[in-house]
Amino acid sequence: MKLNFIFTCTLLLISLPNVAAQPKQSISESGSRPSIAGPEQFFTGAARIDPLFPATDEINASAAYVTFEPGTRTAWHIHPKGQQIIVTQGVGYTQEWGKPRQQIKPGDVIWCPAGIKHWHGAAPKTAMTHLVVTGQDNEGRNVSWLEKVSDEQYLGQDQADKTGKHP
């Protein structure tokens, strides 16, 4: 009996380092990640980015809430691994290069595949917030920024046909 107890205790002690090395759930408390202003070179107007989590070895994607004041939008850009956009508040627009601008509203989920040139932002008179989950490539990049969206593109005026109608 005594030998059995010693054997069991020895097995338990041997296995403790393995238990301690196991990954553990973690909580990143609200308010522990500072908000940042959307950089002027990548946004037209005022935007606030509230980071949620960075890409890691376990999950190769990052997430953030982005809030656009009325009339604010991103520059044209491309994601090397794609992006999911979930509109949580307000009304906005998104547009894929060469296609019509589309209105987006709370509950809409937009999948933007890798390599697709696009922009997104708030409507002219309404702020808009969305949650973005963005993939990251092997070099750690999640976006390639391009030129700014013109006022005509933002307003959908570049989509007018010869009759002057807009989609």
In short:
This protein has 167 residues and is α+β, with helices and mostly antiparallel strands. It has helices at 2-20, 151-155, and strands spanning 36-37, 43-44, 47-53, 61-68, 73-74, 77-78, 83-90, 92-96, 102-104, 109-112, 118-122, 128-135, 144-145. Keywords: Signal.
Map the helices and strands:
Elements: H1 2-20, E1 36-37, E2 43-44, E3 47-53, E4 61-68, E5 73-74, E6 77-78, E7 83-90, E8 92-96, E9 102-104, E10 109-112, E11 118-122, E12 128-135, E13 144-145, H2 151-155
Antiparallel strand pairs: 1-3, 2-5, 3-4, 4-12, 6-13, 7-10, 7-12, 8-9, 8-11
Distance between the termini: 84 Å
Query: What share of the residues does DSSP label as strand, in percent?
Result: 25-35%
Average predicted confidence as pLDDT: 87
In CATH terms, the superfamily of the domain at 36-148 is Jelly Rolls
N to C succession of SSEs: HEEEEEEEEEEEEEH
Give the CATH architecture of the domain at 36-148: Sandwich
Helix content: 10-25%
Discrete helix count: 2
User: Which stretches are poorly predicted, pLDDT < 50 over at least 5 residues?
Assistant: 5-14, 160-167
Shape: globular
- Compute the gyration radius: what is it? 23 Å
Q: How would you write the strand order of the largest sheet?
A: 1-3-4-12-7-10
Can you summarize the main beta sheet? Answer: 6 strands, antiparallel
Number of beta-strand segments: 13
Which CATH C-level class of the domain at 36-148 is it?
Mainly Beta
Structural class of the helix and strand makeup?
Answer: alpha+beta
CATH topology of the domain at 36-148: Jelly Rolls
